[in-house]
Task: structure prediction
Amino acid sequence: MAQTLFSALNWQRTIYVNGFVGHSPIIPARWNELYRAGKEVMSEKAFAYIAGGAGLEKTMEANRRGFDRWQIVPHMLRNVEQRDTSITVFGRKLPSPFLLSPIGVLEMVHSRADLAVAQAAAAFNIPFIFSNQASVPMEQAAAAMGNSPRWFQLYWSKSDELVVSLVRRAEKSGCDAIAVTLDTTMLGWRPRDLNLGYLPFMEGKGIAQYTSDPVFMRLVQEQLHQPQALETKPKPTLQAIAGLWKMANAFPGNLLANLFSPLPRAAVRLFVNIYSRPSLTWENLRFLREHTRLPIVLKGILHPDDARRAVDEGINGIMVSNHGGRQVDGAIGAIDALPNVVQAVGGQIPVFMDSGIRSGADAFKAIALGATAVGIGRPYAFGLAVGGEAGVREVLQHFLADFELNMGLAGCKNVEEIRQSTLRKV
Result:
């Protein structure tokens, strides 16, 4: 796939020239305006799922407050005419220090879901971390990306056999790393979803990685032949019937056949029971190392002791993240946790960061505090809602331009020159 050679000044100029002839950008350049635009086009359920956080959403607030505690202190007269935003991650040179963090159930946002995001990411050679809860099988998303970089997010299932199957598929799909999500061994308490009584997985949405997996589907078949415990079945309603139709529609194959098949319901039931493992420990990670040659990144590390343990266990990278504030209410902001984790790692492995990144200036601050690269999350989901693939592309162009311009205006001609000395804490 052909990739776009990006220039911040060219993109800025394009926006102004297009504006002169009456064509405004698809995507607002400021997060608050993008948020409002996305809310207008999303369904109530989709908006609650994408925008919501845990509890009182104090962790989401902490993510943003943390960035406000740091100010950029520009240096002048540094000759930044030539700017280089490239980095190297796991031996692969990337044109920018951005990743697309995994977001599940993107079909709630746009019909092309992960495919649109994959193609937008590939246009700028930005690694897309395939969600384990994707709406499109990883093989299809990988095919849409050509040789562009991608990772795979792993939710550790109760079935080790399924874990191995997913990881092997990721390897065959050309993924550069496995990002093991540690902070979602159980769903956090999410009032926006709870108030609607809605979980998209119950409709068979966001489980495409599973229904396309041979091990999972074998387990579904085995489940059909096992006696089921007596369950209290709610009285049929029009909403329940609609839910069954959506479940059948989301399942691979013919809709009419699915409506009369037990497989879609069995797949959803098995997914809900198997998708995560609260008993996960460090010992399980050794099992993963035995079954993959790919670098392993631990996503969800906030405590420096865990960072040190990760290094001792031979882990290849860490992503400082609180899942965008969706899991623990009142947790430390990701940017606040970053410096101590970086110090604990001591440069032995790369440290990535997501949760709360809303601008190129945010990315600059995270890199100054030691992050190798940063993950964009909700902004690209909102861009997808507003403009599909073109919307995601514009979100990425805004981030790339904002970062490059802030880097140059702060007196840094490349990413290596972005250091904590360019910041002041307030």
In short: The mean pLDDT is 95.
